[in-house]
Amino acid sequence: MPYLNPAAGAAREGRQTTAVANAAAATAAAAAGATPTKAEYDALLADVNALRTKVNALLAAMRTSGQLAP
Question: Which pTM value belongs to this model?
Answer without folding.
Answer: 0.70
